[in-house]
Amino acid sequence: MAKVTDYGAVCDGVTDDTLAVQAAIDDDQLIEFPIGKCIITAPLCINKPVVIRGVGRHLSTLKHLNTNMNMLNITTDGGVDIKNMAFSAPINATGGHVINLTGDTVNAFSTIKDCLFYGGWNQFYTTAAYAWIADGNYHYGYVNTGIQVRNTYNADWGDSTVTNTVMSGGAANSTSIYQSSSGGLRIVNNKLLGGAYAYRYAPTGNELTSDLIIANNSIENQTVAAMRFTTANQGAVLANIVINANQFMNQPIVVAMDSPHRFMSRIVISDNSMSVVSQYGIILTNVEDFIVSNNQITGNGVNGIAIGSASQNGKVTGNRTKGFSTGIVNSSSSTVVIN
Known about the structure:
By secondary structure, the chain is mostly beta strands. Helices cover 3% and strands 51% of the residues.
């Protein structure tokens, strides 16, 4: 076990502790932080499996003041466990990642648990990782994203989970959870507040990925849409999507699957409560093989559910819409509405 204070870290919120903390990481696989604020001025590099542990997320803080800097660069293919820590970065950041899961090989089985994130451009950023867990964390003040999910090693390697997490206080154009690849993502039992989007899926290339579950979340006060799925790449594929038992409040649009290209299929949107919707509840512009059932959608917008003519093979049943100019608009010849 390596205590950073044994390597010369002062953790007084003033002294530069970069070299001491890096030395502790290099020397051991269990690194402990004390009560206090450890200031760093350069990224910390982790190239082996380690456990980073603080006394508590309101007591042990790792902090930097650079508006465009990574805090932790994790390049190992083995798991890294981080818990009971706070990570503080500038609230006016212009770039950089607080925790960066990256590298030439894919990282597996990392866990970030019971941590606090304050400020920074991207707070948790994965570019080559799978089977990770983010649980019980609090994200506040992210400029771009709270969690960004990618896997450049294999676009369909995911099997990852975001649970029991609160995300709030993001910048006006921020996204709580942004995904561009990496299959097998579960977003369950979270509170997602504010910003432009709570969840956004936008592949950057012709990624083939599947298996997305978004369930039992409370999602409120986004300014563009609670969830948006779109791509400019005709070769991208996203399949096996379940959006179930979520509560949505104060949304312009709740679920926008409004890509001009058909890349989404096998979709279930069911048993959600959507209230105070000012534009649309659910938009399905160009999707196939979908079920929309038993949703409660209330607001004062245009349509509760809008199904485009390019969408195929859908079933809409058991939904209740209230307060819209037209509750359900179905322009698809192969979609059945039984309501």
